[in-house]
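User: Good morning. I'm curious how manganese (II) ion would be positioned relative to this chain. Could you predict the structure with it bound?
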Amino acid sequence: MPAPGENLKVNGSRLWDTLMEMAKIGPGIAGGNNRQTVTDEDSEGRHLFQDWCTAAGCTMGVDTMGNMFARREGTDPDALPVYVGSHLDTQPTGGKYDGVLGVLSGLEVIRTMNDLDIKTKHPIVVTNWTNEEGTRFAPAMLASGVFAGIHTQDWAYDREDAKGKKFGDELARIGWKGDEPVGERKMHAFFELHIEQGPILEAENIQIGVVTHGQGLSWTEVTITGKDAHTGSTPMPMRKNAGLAMARVLEKVEEIALSHAPHAVGAAGHIDVYPNSRNVIPGKVVFTIDFRSPELSVIEDMETRLKTEAQAIVDAMDMTIDFKKVGGFDPVAFDETCVTAVRNAAERLGYSHMDLISGAGHDACWINRMYPTAMVMCPCVDGLSHNEAEEISQEWAAAGTDVLFHAVVETAEIVS
Ligand code: HGY
Ligand code: MN
Ligand code: MN
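Assistant: Good morning! Here's the predicted structure, ligand included:
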């Protein structure tokens, strides 16, 4: 298939202005964003994205999970579209680029095609996947997971946030529960541009990550039950301090992950302590262990060791423990042909590039189970993400979007 000429590039300053415009919606308190899924801020961002897509001549479809699909027609209306996108929802203390770059770079591809009057055989569809972050409603990548048949829609609708609100009710409340049945769309291919969310590209002074694989993820919710008691009058030997037990388990999590160095990782990002009162020994703690590795056998070993070693800690302290798997996916190998299209695009454009394993999970990890999929990554400053200080350069954003543009347009088969 013919590829765009190496001099064909996107409009990097328009892309940057669009990113900064979206960043004004759901601002954080330290320069980032708090645009959590199916909140009013999420809805406002969706409306802005929809307006931009309409202005670019796209027609918008929304499915029953709120996934948004902005379609630019190809010359063959029956050809399966090439999809490109990511997510607009953010962490509560998120950055301006995680996910958002992937959606708005897709819009920039459309805008550039319009500028250059490029026609492709396959239609192109820019996608915003609902609830990629999984922070308000676990698990992560919820809506792309339903689209890929991993979860049922009813199960997804029933997910509850910390205030007991249900995902399905909130999606309907903000007015973004579409009527298109989720998962009915078929794809020719799917591409996602994402910031690396790690330090490798910047440290190696490389502009483009050609993502060949994504590491697997396991989320286990742990509940330890001890006994509420007075922090002043309860003698130390009589205490059943669930908070202390959790601290010992978290030390063990660190040890387990480090035993599989250098690739495995482990931590608890979600921790609830009950009753969380200054002068009450915590009688209950609920926390989620996030284990990841490129190798499934390592993830399984870490899960097994967590259970046996945490059980031993809690038994010795005369308390009880419960484990519940609340999320996860196996390591992912992306589609060779799509990965090659990304690598060739970087080569053609003269951008430095290296193969990369994604440390973070992405919607592409689920879509890859259904359709040929690949990812492009650009560096981020200090590898920092899931932090309001997350930062990229305009040049990095433009280079990543140039590569995305070439890979998408080549895969969609340029007609003129
Ligand atoms: O958890 C992840 O890896 C993604 O950022 N949701
Ligand atoms: Mn993301
Ligand atoms: Mn994220």
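The first strand starts at residue 59 and ends at 62. The CA atoms of residues 184 and 203 lie 42 Å apart.
Let me know if you'd like a different ligand tried.
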